[in-house]
Design a protein that fits this description.
Layout: H1 2-29, E1 39-45, H2 59-63, H3 71-74, E2 98-101, E3 106-109, H4 113-116, E4 122-129, H5 135-144, H6 154-162, E5 172-177, E6 205-206, H7 225-246, H8 249-272, H9 279-285, H10 295-307, E7 312-317, H11 326-350, E8 357-362, E9 366-367, E10 384-385, E11 389-394, E12 402-404, E13 406-407, E14 414-416, E15 419-420, H12 421-431, E16 441-443, E17 446-448
Parallel strand pairs: 1-7, 1-8, 4-12, 4-15, 5-6, 5-7
Antiparallel strand pairs: 2-3, 4-11, 8-11, 9-10, 13-14, 16-17
């Protein structure tokens, strides 16, 4: 009687578990559509870089500098609490000069001379937009597809959908750096590279810039690799027994993570060892490339991770929230990232990796065309602006040397080819070989996806 009850109550569960395992392996082993990119490097400028001072030149603003922004242009847009109480909204031209670069003739600010030298490798999108107006919901929306926390990040979705091509490193790696601008850093929460409701093996692994790159990576004193291997074998047996009893997929995930951690004890130190890099390589990435934790050093690590076939590499650079002192602070921020970004593109291209690596640069939103607070002769700030902002893409089957989308003469509203953040994510997934509508995870009776219930692939920017 007891045996019959056992098989009646567990047989279906065991069968479904086996089927789920097979489906999971099938999903991770075969792209849904033909891929053009194998991996993504996301260069995320946390805080919202000013598109009007970097990529979206507005000559009309120079003519009307200091005039009031027409109410008809602003319309009924929801403003942040930092400027909603202003009695005046003075139009603010950039103090920086723009020039056209390369055969493409893309206008780029004087603050980014190295990036400008790569203009013909870039697809500059000036018409990205989001409905979020504050940092946390805007970053969360861009990274997870929803303004509320709790959903998987893009890197976790990529890991879940495609798996890893390197069994000795995580599929999703995160690198953090602080900017040089004199602003308090907005917080970055680990959930931005978390796995949400996906198995925890898909979450991003944050490599630290000091000490062990990963906490507890080194064995304690007196513990040899052989002893650690024996401990893990015993632990795996116990976990397998628990999994047989409980049929909990998180136990299987835990077994995989222990094994990955063991392999990372060798692979991560090798990754972080830059002794094989040449002096010319360090010079290309800039004077900070030898300083661990800087954006330049992280860009060099990103190339090393790409060479090792890590699926999703995300760099966060803090300090782009210029509500005041924008001219001085933006110059400092661009000094951090300009040369390393250009060097990364050139390095990938030289090694034959750019065609199969999609590089993305941008933040969670842009900045306003009007000044926050008092507009001074040579100083101003800009508030958050989600109606239009700029990102650029390079490599990975994206058209090079083009500018996509257009904003009005004030740089306030989109006039041609709007692209929502869901459209951007759908397009990136398409380049990885994934139909964004089919990469789903069923939870509580609903199929969830990165692009929520929105988004379309922008084929005009794809080769």
């Amino acid at each position: 009687m007891i045996r019959r009850v056992f098989f009646r109550t567990t047989g279906m569960q065991l069968g479904l578990s086996a089927l789920a395992s097979l489906l999971d392996r099938e999903l991770q082993s075969a792209p849904i559509i033909a891929p053009k990119a194998k991996r993504v490097i996301s260069l995320f400028m946390h805080g919202g870089p000013s598109q009007l001072d970097l990529f979206d030149d507005k000559p009309e603003l120079r003519k009307r500098h200091g005039e009031e922004l027409p109410a008809s242009v602003r319309g009924d847009q929801r403003l942040t609490g930092m400027t909603s109480g202003q009695s005046t909204f003075p139009l603010t031209a950039s103090v920086f000069e723009f020039q056209r670069h390369g055969e493409s003739g893309i206008p780029i600010s004087e603050l980014l001379p190295h990036t400008a030298s790569r203009a013909d490798d870039l697809c500059v999108i000036r018409s990205l937009h989001t409905e979020a107006i504050n940092h946390d919901p805007a970053v969360t929306l861009l990274q997870t597809g929803h303004q509320l926390p709790g959903r998987p990040s893009f890197g976790a979705w990529a890991s879940y959908g495609l798996g890893s091509e390197n069994e000795n490193l995580p599929a999703f790696v995160v690198l953090l750096s602080n900017g040089s601008a004199a602003r308090p850093a907005d917080p970055l929460y680990a959930r931005l590279w978390g796995s949400g409701f996906l198995p925890s093996s898909h979450q991003g692994v944050n490599l630290r810039s000091s000490g062990d790159p990963v906490l507890y990576l080194s064995n304690p004193q007196g513990v040899s690799p052989e002893m650690r291997r024996s401990q893990l074998d015993t632990l795996a047996q116990l976990n397998e027994y628990a999994n047989h009893r409980e049929q909990d997929t998180e136990i299987t995930t835990r077994i995989k993570q222990y094994e990955m951690a063991f392999r990372m004890q060798t692979s991560v130190p090798d990754l972080a060892d830059l002794s094989e890099e040449t002096a010319a390589t360090f010079a290309a990435y800039g004077p900070q490339a030898t300083l661990p934790g800087t954006f330049a050093a992280n860009c060099l690590l990103a190339r090393r991770l790409a060479k090792r076939n890590v699926r999703f590499i995300q760099l966060y650079h803090r300090g782009w929230d210029q509500h005041y002192n924008l001219p001085s602070d933006l110059r400092l921020q661009c000094g951090d990232i300009d040369q390393p970004c250009a060097a990364l593109i050139g390095d990938l291209k030289q090694r034959g990796l750019l065609d199969e690596t999609l590089v993305i640069w941008g933040g969670e939103f842009g900045r306003t065309t009007y000044s926050q607070g008092k507009l001074e002769a040579k100083n101003y700030g800009r508030d958050h602006h989600g109606r239009c902002f700029t990102v650029w893409l390079a490599g990975g089957g994206i058209k090079a040397g083009i500018a996509y989308g257009q904003t009005d003469e004030f740089g306030y509203n989109i006039t041609h080819n709007p692209m929502h953040v869901h459209d951007l994510n759908a397009t990136i997934l398409a380049q990885l070989g994934i139909d964004h509508e089919r990469l789903t995870y069923r939870l509580q009776g609903r199929d969830f996806r990165l692009t929520d219930v929105h988004g379309h692939v922008v084929r005009e920017i794809i080769e």
